Amino acid sequence: NIQGITKPAIRRLARRGGVKRISGLIYEETRSVLRTFLENVIRDSVTYTEHAKRKTVTAIDVVYALKRQGRTLYGFGL
Predict the structure, then answer these.
(1) Angle formed by the axes of helices 26-51 and 7-16, nearest 10°
(2) pLDDT exceeds 80 at position 78
(3) Which CATH class is domain 2-68?
(4) What is the pLDDT of residues 17-62, one digit of tens each?
(5) Which has fewest Cβ within 10 Å: 4, 27, 52, 57?
């Protein structure tokens, strides 16, 4: 459930990014952007898992999915 991403959680992420003030309209927009991002990463991760004839998605599958989308992630065994 995307509503599990609470207002305080979004606020913390924004603070970490250096944001001082947040409009009330930001929360739903952030949830929709996050949902789209996660759907794309999960779809690619599952594709890598199925290609390897496995049923368990591993961290490496997620790393490859992120790399495919141009968001290289370091520190997970590659």
Answers:
(1) 90
(2) no
(3) mainly alpha
(4) 999 999 999 999 999 999 999 999 999 999 999 999 999 999 999 9
(5) 4
pLDDT score of 76: 84
The values of phi and psi at residue 72, to 5°, are -60, 130
In the predicted structure, residue 70 carries a pLDDT above the cut 70: yes
**Distance set, CA 53 to CA 19, 39, 58, 66 (Å):** 43, 21, 12, 20
- What's the Cα-to-Cα distance from 59 to each of 5, 10, 51, 55, 71, rounded to whole Å? 22, 24, 15, 13, 14
Q: From CA 18, how far away is CA 56, in angstroms rounded?
A: 36
Give the closest residue to 2 by CA, choosing from 40, 35, 39.
Answer: 35
The CA distance from 43 to 1, in Å, is 17
